[in-house]
Amino acid sequence: MTLTSSELKLKAHQLRQTIFKVMSNGGGGHLPTSLSMTDILTVLYYNILNIDPKNPKAPDRDRFILSKGHGGVTLYAILADLGFFDAGHLDTFGKKGTILGGHPDMHKVPGIEASTGALGHGLPFGAGVALAGKKDRKDYRVFVVIGDGECQEGSIWETALFAPQACLDNMTVIIDHNKCQAMDHLDNIIRMEPLAEKWRAFGWAVVEVDGHDMNAMQELLSSLPLQKNKPALIVAHTIKGKGISFMEDVPIWHYRPMKPDELKRAAVELGLTVVNGVVK
Questions:
Q1: What is the chain's pLDDT, residue by residue, as a tens digit (280 residues)?
Q2: Neighbouring C-beta atoms of residue 121, cutoff 10 Å
Q3: pTM tops 0.85, yes or no
Q4: Domain extents for the chain?
Q5: Under CATH, to which class is 5-279 assigned?
Q6: Exposed, middle or buried: residue 280 (CB in 10 Å: 0-12, 13-18, 19+)?
Q7: Considering only CA atoms, which of 177, 139, 144 is closest in space to residue 44?
């Protein structure tokens, strides 16, 4: 499957609608962080990754790991849309017995490569998978999406040191650089700039891109590896809460639930409706 530029934009919009419905009707979730990376994952899953919904454990498949697991609903929406599991499961999010937890579980959900949630774990896991691919002389690629707040974890920088030494040019890490974390903007908690230069100094091939410009993302991800024997690091500049105007770049929405009038306003902005408190 390869989508055109206009098809990618439409798909991303449809996914944002699904993400919003799943969380709103399921009783909660980390909506803004899921929306900030929607465009990135749309390009990856529909135009870049070598994956097969009918054979999710194919040995030579590309691996995608969502290290910032609290954004897992974006991944659920995509996997359901691609046919990795029945889309009916999306209606069970937030309910007893669901396979779709607040963080992705590789033992319950087809297409999930790693159970993530505790920040800082997905990247070292991905480096191990990439190293195994090198040693086994496999052609698969490993893609890991991490958060910029997650970059405050020590395990991130341990892996940042290791991956270039292991020449993991089969691994690409994308930072969802929305410049917010749970309680505030990054600069008000632990300042991460100059972020790109930090990774470059550790030996990575580094580029920056607008994470909502899917044409630019498509061109960049189609040109991998960026440099032989070096892992790739993409700093994708994004907006937390992208698609819902009053949530964009406002840290409080990481946790704050919407009031009924806010729910209706957000639904309208996404082209949806609310009937008796249920998003349609």
A1: 689 999 999 999 999 999 999 999 998 889 999 999 999 999 999 999 999 999 999 999 999 999 999 999 999 999 999 999 999 999 999 999 999 999 999 999 999 999 998 899 999 999 999 999 999 999 999 999 999 999 999 999 999 999 999 999 999 999 999 999 988 999 999 999 999 999 999 999 999 999 999 999 999 999 999 999 999 999 999 999 999 999 999 999 998 899 999 999 999 999 999 998 899 9
A2: 19
A3: yes
A4: 5-279
A5: alpha beta
A6: exposed
A7: 144
